[in-house]
């Protein structure tokens, strides 16, 4: 009976976390267009999309998992954190994702720098301006400086760092998505059509328009 109750608690807890993650993901994506493909997108897709007339920002997302030291003292251990490597600048990222930054500045993101979800930051004792050691998928140890702490890690990614830090360190260097923000006043349908043509060289790539409605976290 106890085991059944415990199991039910786990099931409902994960279901609640999934729903919370979905809400945060929807609220966190503020892009106007999303380019995706089942098998991933070549690394140059974001640059091609960025050259399309009417596009203000284009960011490729390379998703993986990274090990982060958490805990303290003898209880310190390595925990896998969901991670996104982003092309472009932190300012470009802010145009297509709202990570709900609580401390620091996302536009400070760059080589050797990382933004961290607040729950992971608490577990890892990470603070803005402090160093945080990361263990990349190929075993490489990367020392980074925390530049921002944000609130939407559950729905998007617990770590955000430049794509270049991950490229060559992962099994597949294909982007999972490219997020695009239209320029102010641009014809959204025309931009979507142009994006469709720009990714047509990728046989599985598709561009989808998103409604401009914004959802709270």
From TrEMBL:
<feature type="region of interest" description="Disordered">
    <location>
        <begin position="193"/>
        <end position="217"/>
    </location>
</feature>
<protein>
    <recommendedName>
        <fullName>MacB-like periplasmic core domain-containing protein</fullName>
    </recommendedName>
</protein>
<feature type="compositionally biased region" description="Basic residues">
    <location>
        <begin position="207"/>
        <end position="217"/>
    </location>
</feature>
């Amino acid at each position: 009976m106890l085991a059944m109750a415990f199991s039910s608690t786990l099931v409902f807890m994960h279901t609640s976390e999934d729903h919370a993650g979905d809400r945060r993901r929807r609220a966190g994506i503020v892009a106007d267009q999303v380019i995706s493909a089942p098998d991933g997108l070549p690394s140059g897709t974001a640059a091609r999309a960025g050259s399309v007339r009417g596009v203000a920002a284009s960011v490729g997302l390379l998703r993986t998992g990274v090990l982060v030291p958490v805990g303290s003292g003898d209880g310190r251990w390595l925990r896998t954190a969901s991670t996104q490597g982003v092309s472009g600048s932190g300012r470009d990222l802010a145009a297509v994702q709202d990570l709900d930054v609580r401390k620091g500045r996302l536009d400070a993101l760059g080589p050797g720098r990382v933004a961290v979800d607040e729950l992971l930051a608490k577990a890892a004792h990470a603070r803005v301006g402090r160093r945080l050691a990361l263990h990349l998928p190929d075993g490489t140890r990367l020392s980074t400086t925390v530049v921002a702490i944000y609130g939407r890690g559950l729905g998007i990614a617990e770590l955000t760092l430049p794509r270049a830090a991950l490229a060559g360190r992962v099994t597949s260097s294909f982007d999972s998505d490219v997020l695009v923000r239209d320029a102010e006043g641009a014809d959204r349908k025309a931009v979507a059509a142009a994006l469709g043509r720009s990714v047509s060289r990728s046989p599985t790539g598709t561009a989808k328009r998103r409604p401009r409605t914004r959802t709270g976290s």
